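Class, discuss our next protein.
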Amino acid sequence: MGGKVARWLLLILVAALVLVGIWTWMTLNWSFSEGERAGYVQKLSKKGWVCKTWEGEIAMVTMPGAIPEKFEFTVPDDAVAQRINALSGNRVVLIYQQHKFIPSTCFGETEYFVVDVREVKDGPPLPMPSVPQGRLQTP
């Protein structure tokens, strides 16, 4: 009787591990959303006690003088992380995939996984708003 209980417990444990494995594979291979974020890389570092992952942050500035919004991200590929480091100090566009419900932070601390980067080339300056010339008219 004890042998049957042990077999059932082992079967349940194996089934649970298989389900967790399938869930992890699905969350890492199918993205919830994809997009781009532009800004200046503020930090990028490889961190973690056991699972070392590249974690970073960019400041997204919409116009000069505005308070920047921060975007935290994870870089799973060392080659992409090196390209981001090479472009530090420049305005960049990060191409990311959002992966929700990953069961562990061992794959990254955020759900935003950067898969590519490109430098933003400075274009022509933005036009200044026109100011009417002449005298003010009062009613």
About this structure: The helical segments are 2-29, 78-86. The first strand starts at residue 33 and ends at 47.
